[in-house]
Amino acid sequence: MAQQATVLRLEPGKDFVVTPLIKSICRRCLAYLKAGYPVHLSGPAGTGKTTLAMHLAGVIGRPVMIIYGDEEFGSSDLLGNDKGIVSKRLVDNFVHSVVKTEENVSNVWVDQRLTTACKNGYTLVYDEFSRSRAEANNVLLSALEERLLVLPESRYGESYINIHSEFRAIFTSNPDEYAGVYTPQSALLDRMITINLGCYDAQTEAAITSAKSGMPEKESNKIVELVRHIRENQDISFDPTIRASIMIADIVNKQEVKVKTDDRVFIETCLDVICKGSDTSGQVKKAIENIIG
Ligand SMILES: Nc1ncnc2c1ncn2[C@@H]1O[C@H](COP(=O)(O)OP(=O)(O)OP(=O)(O)O)[C@@H](O)[C@H]1O
Ligand SMILES: [Mg+2]
To answer: Is the domain of 126 the same as that of 217?
Structure first.
């Protein structure tokens, strides 16, 4: 039997950290969304795009449909399609000597997430939308501009639906991936308001790291300073994200480990999390000595 798409009810996250920077980004995004414009959060890995999109959807307060971009998608994965057939049989035995049977076979259309969200006025979170091919995302063009969702003829003969006035859309994407994936069409980008999320400031990263790991800010500040230093170091070719800070702080906090260079377990944890198996432990060790002391 075909599955209906799952609808989520999100509350504004209790562990969502709000700093002056995040507050100002949220204020802008919510103003655009309330005015009816789709918002696109763009930024490198680990800059808080998905977390922010979910938080905004929670604040809007409508049911939420989430789609994760996928290169295998076709437009039917967004809109819906025929997922089987239903057969109805009518047996008429009113006159005992005569049995009349009638059989009707029809297709069963199942709405996918975009159609469900448009029809019912839900908030659509389309995470990493640029991972889907432009042809799959084409259906969004008229949805975002004319507020009309064009459907294949097979859907009960309806060729389009008017989009509910409370339908809102939040997109995320990572521009670093465009080279390897599909460049979002300029026509689609032209219909959204794009907010570029760079890495958060040190204060915001420290507040998030402390909140997520339970480590006091005084110590988590040092870990964030270390990770940011390595991220900004031109000689090291990879950029550890806030996830590295959260992981180190969390692991250290769960053990009897000090944020000190003379604690062997602390150094090992930093190297394992930050170096990702690469041959940069010498440079990272030096940074730990300089920053952590
Ligand atoms: N405002 C916030 N409050 C609490 N935690 C946050 C906040 N922003 C980001 N985080 C945490 O930082 C980490 C990275 O955030 P997130 O997954 O949203 O980034 P992303 O930009 O979507 O990354 P990716 O591109 O890899 O999907 C997660 O562990 C997330 O919980
Ligand atoms: Mg994400």
So the answer is: no
Spatial contact of 144 and 187, defined as CB atoms under 8 Å apart = no
Domain that holds residue 246: 202-292
* Contacts (Cβ under 8 Å, ≥6 apart) of 245: 205, 209, 220, 223, 224, 227
Domain count, the chain: 2
Ligand (nearest to CA of 174): 1
- Look at ligand 1, atom 26, and give the residue with the nearest C-alpha: 45
Task: Find the ligand nearest to 52 CA.
Answer: 1
CA 243 to ligand 1 centroid distance, Å = 8
Q: Is 70 exceeded by the pLDDT of residue 56? A: yes
- Spacing of C-alpha 273 from chain mean position: 24
Does the residue 250 lie in any domain? yes
Q: Is the pLDDT of residue 87 over 60?
A: no
pLDDT in tens, 198-237: 889 999 999 999 999 999 988 999 999 999 999 998 777 7
- For residue 96, being part of any structural domain is answered with no
